[in-house]
Amino acid sequence: MITARIAFNLHFVRPHPVNQPLRNPYSPISRPSLRFHSGNAFPLRFRRIHIAYCTENSFDSTCGEIVEPSDSYFTGVVESANTATWLGVATLTNKILGLLREATMASVFGVGAVATSFKYAWVLPGFSSLLLGGVNGPIHIIMSATLSKLPKERGKKLFQHLTTIMFLVGGIVATLVYNFPEFILQSYAPGLWILTEGKIIRELAMEQLKIMTPCIVLAGPVGLGFGYMSAEGNDALPSISPAISSSLLIVACLFYTFTKHLNASSTGGKLVSFAASLGLFLQWVIQVIVLRRRWSCIIPGSFISILKGGDVFEFFSLLLPATVSSGLAQIASFTDLCFASHIPDAASGLSYAYLMVMAPLGALSTIIILPLVPTFCKFVKTSSWKSLGDEVERSLLLCMVLLLPAFSIMHVLAEPAIHVFFKYFALDASASAQVSTLFSAYSVGAPFFFARDLLVAVFYAFGDGKGPFLVSAGAIAVNAFLDWLSVSKLNLGAEGLALSTSFIATLSVFLLYHLLKMKLSGLSNYTVMFYPAALLLICSITSNLTTSAGYKLIRELLASKFLSRSACVGIKFPVAQW
Predict the structure, then answer these.
(1) Distance of alpha carbon 411 from alpha carbon 368, whole angstroms
(2) Of 216, 205, 206, nearest to 181 (Cα)?
């Protein structure tokens, strides 16, 4: 099961002297943020989480204060609006390039050996570069929050020390991965040693994994660089950086198309793997150029003094639990890949279908959920439980109104849409049919993917991170059982894996809603939500049937007109010849 993850900027609250300004006063309005409160100077675990939406100047006071209007205030508002606009454009660009990247790979490699081996080889490098060192990953967020409360010189020293540690740890892990790729690959893809065509896929995957080991080395330093730039108010470059990797992968696929060699599988796999490593390397080079003054004397004299540093200890005491929490989704994807390795070409097909479902959900999540976070926080702060319950119910209904009709229509149009969008070169009719079937299976749970993220945001507004964590951990165990049941006993194949993911998302929403109802007295019972949900479901089924009938009618009309014109041409042509 692959889950969507929403990350927020973290501000780790400490008592801060009023007469000592913070390092990041570039805007009077901050973004939605997660605050970790702890009584100790170095918290060992997340005790309580608060989401706040407040001014930078009111960092040590209550959130939501009314600031006296001034010229500087309105100037900051305009700057914040401009920053948000650029970040929105960068996010949209990344989404479009990501979708175009997958479409290009599907067109060039289809669901064959190259695409499947790349999905398996990318597991560890992807975990490092996207989850740990990526934008809004744990390293990025925690580094940004830690630097925001430290003096400039102290923050620069911490950045240098952490970069040294990340390079050393990443180098050790990358060395192990490079020397033992077969053992690592067999741990999460045992089916490649059983399938008939598994030998080719696992050899390609091991070769690609070796090429992408630089991603493991550079992931930590890149995440630290993103955090440093965000702490200084430069969010534009971190937001647009993922587009570099997507662009290089597209270029690699196009280059392979025009310069095919005899050993096509090996050449294509090497090209896309090299492009992935080069993309992260270029991101690091850009950071070195931008942060060149902060990289002076990057190797300190004593490594023992680094480990004894209080700031370093505090950083890792926060990073480890955040990594475990964020890694739950990756563990779920390991489970899916483990069972998908027993099914030919399942990994790449699942990836393409899941992307088509999650791309619009990610955009809607940014548009709808993030603006609601400060609203939830305000209601929790003022103990307006009835207002909070009404807002949660309206948000859930909005989710169902937007997604149920849309995906009921896409369920019908999935096959022709994928046929048009993906069917070029290597993705033949059978592969298109497989991807469309998996898309339909994922689309069943699409509204619940979105609703789950919404309910998790409400839990964070309450300062409760334990509930969502336990639900996610239990969902992973249930998903593993359903994967085994659908593949080993019911023989549902890749469709069973996709349906298991959708079912787990649905179950998670009901569990989270039940836990939230125990916490929030203003939330309605299931019976109150049942009536509008049932009405929307009936409307969605009606739209599904109407769309299906309309699509079949249009297809038959176009086919009959085409055949009639072909017959007329066939009759007139012999007469003209005669």
Answers:
(1) 23
(2) 206
Q: Quick one: three-class SS letters along 197-252?
A: CHHHHHHHHHHHHHHCHHHHHHHHHHHHHHHHHHHCCCCHHHHHCHHHHHHHHHHH
> Rounded to 5 degrees, what are φ and ψ at 137?
-80, 175
SS3 of 412-440: the string is HHHHHHHHHHHCCCCCCHHHHHHHHHHHH
Edge-first strand order for the sheet with 33-37 is 9-11, 33-37, 48-52
How many Cβ atoms are within 10 Å of 491's Cβ, its own excluded? 8
What is the model's pLDDT at position 213?
94
Residues 209 and 248: their CA atoms lie apart, in Å, by 18
Residues 6+ positions from 572 with CB-CB distance below 8 Å: none
> How confident is residue 234, by pLDDT bands cut at 50, 70 and 90?
confident
Name 51's bridge partners: 34
In the three-class reduction of DSSP (H, G, I as helix; E, B as strand; rest coil), residue 11 is classed as: strand
Q: How far apart are CA 302 and CA 312, in angstroms?
A: 14
Instruction: Enumerate residues 6+ apart whose C-beta is below 8 A from 377.
Output: 32, 50, 51, 52, 53, 63, 64, 461
User: What tokens does 28 get?
Assistant: 């009077």
Q: Which of 126, 127, 105, 181 is CA-nearest to residue 348?
A: 105
Considering only residues 86 and 161, tell me which one the structure prediction assigns the higher pLDDT: 161
What phi and psi, each to the nearest 5 degrees, are found at residue 426?
-90, -20
Instruction: Pick the range with the lowest mean pLDDT from 184-188, 531-535, 554-558, 561-565.
Output: 561-565
pLDDT, position 567: 58
Spatial CA neighbour of 190 closest among 347, 338, 344: 338
Q: Give the best-scoring range by mean pLDDT among 65-79, 231-245, 288-302, 480-494.
A: 480-494
Could you give the 3-state DSSP secondary structure of residue 82? helix
| pLDDT tens digits, one per residue of 326-383 | 666 677 777 888 888 888 878 888 888 887 787 777 767 767 776 777 788 788 888 8
- Looking at residue 167, its amino acid is F
Q: Measure CA 257 to chain center.
A: 29
Q: What angle do CA 359, 360, 366 make, to 5 degrees?
A: 95
Going from the C-alpha of 331 to that of each of 135, 324, 334, 406, the distances in angstroms are: 20, 10, 5, 30
Mapped onto helix, strand or coil, the DSSP state of residue 51 is strand
User: 255: part of which helix (H) or strand (E)?
Assistant: helix 242-258
Instruction: Give the CB-side neighbour count of residue 220, counting CA atoms within 13 A.
Output: 22
Average pLDDT of span 512-537: 81
Q: HSE of 545 in the Cβ direction (CA atoms, 13 Å)? A: 5
Strand partners, 9: 33
Report CA-CA distances (Å) from 129 to 204, 246, 286, 546.
21, 13, 16, 44
Q: What is the pLDDT of residues 489-504, one digit of tens each?
A: 888 888 899 899 889 8
* 117 has pLDDT over 80: yes
Q: Can you say whether residue 14 is alpha, beta or left, with left for phi > 0 and alpha for psi between -120 and 50 degrees?
A: beta
